[in-house]
């Protein structure tokens, strides 16, 4: 946004919202981010959740990750660890490295899923192999190599 022209967040929000209402998956994802950050509009966690969910349900892996995170923290929705796990898994299966790390933490802690160190190790390794630097720290701190 703003390439070749002056950056206008309100105008970007207007067009993004118009596209999102027509079902465009990327626009729905972007609108969720705009509401979350308050870019071009007022910050609104409930609307951020709504648009993130619309995009996630259509398969957008980054929206799925954001939705998982929102369920985990209770941002715009009540905390629901099972839903967080579900959406982390959907995104992780599409190779979202941050979601893979989130999924690993849920398996390790037993929050939202049954505790499973082997699966925690698997998803942490996959996350790191996909470039998520935090996963390497997690791998070492939790000594996950023991569970491979």
From TrEMBL:
What the entry lists under InterPro entries is as follows: Sel1-like (IPR006597), Sel1_AlgK (IPR050767), TPR-like_helical_dom_sf (IPR011990)
Q: Which SUPFAM superfamilies match?
A: HCP-like
Q: Which SMART domains match?
A: SEL1
Q: Which domain of life is it from?
A: Bacteria
Q: List the PANTHER family.
A: ERAD-ASSOCIATED E3 UBIQUITIN-PROTEIN LIGASE COMPONENT HRD3, SEL-1-LIKE PROTEIN
- Protein name per Swiss-Prot or TrEMBL: Sel1 repeat family protein
